[in-house]
Write the C-alpha cells for this entry.
Amino acid sequence: MLVGALAGFLGTFYTHHVGLGFLIGMAASGVFSLIMGFITITLKRDQVITGIILNILALGLTSFVYRALFGTSRTPPSIKPLTPLKVPILGDIPYIGTILFHQNLLVYLAFLLVPVSAWILFKTQFGLNLRAVGEHPRAADTLGVPVERMRYIAVILGGIFSGLGGCFLTLAQLNRFTDNITAGRGFIAIAAVIFGKWNPYGVALATLLFGIADGLQLRLQALGTKLPYQFLLMLPYILTIVALVGIVGKSKPPAALAVPYQKDN
Amino acid sequence: MEVWEWGSGDSSTLSHPHTSIPLYPLPYPHTPILPYPHTSPLSYLHTFILLRIDKITKRFPGVLANDQISLEIEAGEVHALLGQNGAGKTTLMNILYGLYQPDSGQIYFKDRKVKISSPRKAIELGIGMVHQHFMLIPDFTVAENILIGFKQRGPFLNLKRVEQAVAELSHRYRLQVDPTARVQHLSVGSRQRVEIIKALYRGAELLILDEPTSVLTPQETHELFQILRTLTAQGKSVIFITHKLNEVMQVCDRATVLRNGRKVGTVKIQQEGPEKEVIKENLARMMIGKEVSLETERTALKKKPVQFGKEVLKVEELEAVNDQNRLVLKKISFSVRAGEILGIAGVAGNGQSELVEVLAGLRKAVGGRVFLNGQEVLNEPPRKLLEGGIAHIPEDRLRMGLVLDLPLPENAILGSFHKAPFSFKIGNALPGPRWLNYTEIRKFTERLIISYDIKTPHPEATMRMLSGGNQQKFIVGRELTRSPKVLLTVQPTMGLDIKATEFVHQKFLEQRENQVAILLISTELDEILALSDRVAVLYEGQIVGLLPADQADREILGRWMSGL
C-alpha cells in the first residue's frame, strides 16, 4: 500500500495526470509484491516473516525516497486530486445524495469490485482453480493446474489492488504523501478478510464497519470530547481486535494458507 | 502359470480374416489380430495394447526405484501392479502420471511414443489417477471438485452442465454420486467414486488406482470391484496397485509383480478354477522373493492358548468430542483382560483416533470412566498413564510417535528420559535439573536396533533417514521395552510390508503371552482376525457388536462396519 501510495503520488506529481499516477502506483505495488512472490513461492520461505520484513522495508523505503526527492519542506508538495463525481439524478436526492452519490470514482469502483470479485472467485474457472490452489495445491496440481503460476498471479493481483488502496490515500483523500501514510490500514484489510469470512461480501461489510469506526473517531474529535484524541485514533484498531476475538465465530481460512507448496512430498 | 511377454501380438490385419470387412470403427491405426472364432467384442479389445512402458529407469539419491521396468496394458483389462512397500509401484505410476520424469526408457500410448511431462499432459492423453490419499477439497461440492483445472471454452463455470454430465457418467458406469453434495459430507466410498468420475469426466481411458481398497469396508470394496468390471466392459483399462493378493485374484485379469525396483514377471490371473491357488502362491513367491507357502505363513502366526487374567483396562460409558466439538464417542463400554487382545474393527473416522487419544491421556473425555488396574484414571495426564503401565503405538507415527529430525537415541528415550538410567541428578535430594546420560542412552538404542532388527545407516542417524517399516519397528520396540500392562495400538502395520507386518504381529503375540492387555485398533480386517481374542466393531462412535474371535467372520463384521 505504501509503495503504491508513494508511486502513485510521484506519478501524478511528475506527469500531472491522476490517471497515470494510479497506473504507476498500481504497477509499482505489483512489482513490489513480486518480491513477496519470489521469496514465498519460488524460494518457499515463511510467508509471515517475509510479509513482516517487506512491510518494514516498504515503510523505510518510501520515507527515504520521499525525503530524497523533496527533502523536508514546510509546505509539503501536493497534487491535484481525483475530483468527486456526482451521479446524475441520484446525486440530487437530499442528504443521502451527497453521501452516496457524490464521491470520487474509486469509491464507486470499490463497491463494484465486490460483486465482480465474488463472481470471479465463485463463478469462473479461474476462480475455482485459484481457490483450489489455496485449499489443496496437490489436488490442483494433479489436475494440471499450474500451482506456482496461480500463486504468483494471486500475489501480484493482491499487490496491484493494495497499490490501488494506497493510491486512494494520496491521490483521492489527502493529496500528498506523508511517512507511514497508511497507518496500518493494510493490516486492517487482512483483519477484514478474516472478519468477513474470506468472502467478498463479508469483507465489504467488515471494511464498512471499520470505515464507520474511523469516521466516528474523526467526528468525535471534531466535536471536541474530553477523551484524549489518541484514544479516539485507537478506535478502529480496538474494533479490529474485538472483531477478531469474538463476535463472528469461526472464520475458516483456506486450508493451505501460508503453506509453501513442495512438489515432491 | 503363463508368463506373458509383450510383442506377441500381430498388428497386420485390419479386418476380420474371413470377411475382409472392418468389424469395428477403429479409432487407431493399430489393429490386433482377431481371435478366431471370436467370442465377444471384449476378446477383440483384450488384444489391443493401450499402453506400453519400455525399460523405464528412475533413480533417487541412494535408491534405484525403477530398474528397466517394461510393462504393457491392454484395452479393457484390469492389470494389477503387485509388490511390497518400496518395490517401486508408486514411483512407476507417478512417472506415468507425469509427476516424475524417468531417467531413461520410453512410454508408448496407443502406439505413439509420448513424453508425459506433467499431470496435465497425462490427462490430455487419457490417463487418470485415483490417489491413495484422495485429491479432493472437502469444502467444495462434487461438481466443483471435478471441474478444478478443467480446460473449457470460455472463462465461466457451467456447473449445471457438469452436474448433468456427472449424472450421466454415474448412470453409465454405476457410480452413484450426488454432484451437488459437498465432499466433506460424503463417505469414503463415495469420495473414491468422485475421484473415478473426475478422471472419466476428463476422458480417461486408463485409470490408475493406487491402493484403492485400503480405506474401504468389505462392502465398499465389493462395490468398487463391480465398478471396475463395468469400466472394463466398456473398454476402459485399469491399473490396480496393491499388495493384497486376494483382491488381485478377485478382480484382475493380469498381474505384474515388482520387487526391489525390478519387474519379476507378468502373470495371467484365473479368477476361478483349480489353478487359482497355484497362481496365488506363485504371486506371493514373486513378491517376497523367497519360497513361502501361504499356509506356513499363517501357521507362523499361531496363537498359543493364554490364560486371561483380571480386567486391566476397563472403559465405562466413555464419551468424547472431536476437534470440531462433535460427539464422536457415544457411551462406549468395554474391557480388556491381561493376556487378551481386543480388536476394534471399523472404518477409519468412526471414533478410533479419539478413543485412543482419550485412553492415552491426549484428549479430555466429556463423560464416562476409565479404570487402569482398578484405579480410575480418566483425564489423567499422559505421564501418569505411562507410569501406570500404558504404552501407546500411535496411529500417525510421523506426527505423534517420533521426532523425525532428531537422532535415533533421542527418539528412543521419548517418554522415559526423566528416569534412570537415561538421566540423573547431581545430589539426589537437591532440587535441580536432570542430566542426560548419553552413554546409557546409546547403549539402549543399540540394544533396540539389534533386538528389533532395525535397519539404519548409523545408530546416530536421524529418524527421517529410516524407512517407514523400520520407524514403526523402532516405536514398537521402544513401547514394548517399557514392560507395559496395557498396550494401545492403532493401525500398527499401516504401510508396512509383509515381513515387517509379520514381525510386529509376532511381537504383539509375545506380549500377549506375557499377560499384557492389548487394545488393537485397525481398519484391516485381516489383522484384526489374525490377532484378536475378541473383536468389537466401532461405528459412528458406538460399539455396534462384540464377538469372540472364533465366531467372527468378515461377513458379519463387514455388515457392522457399514452400520447395517
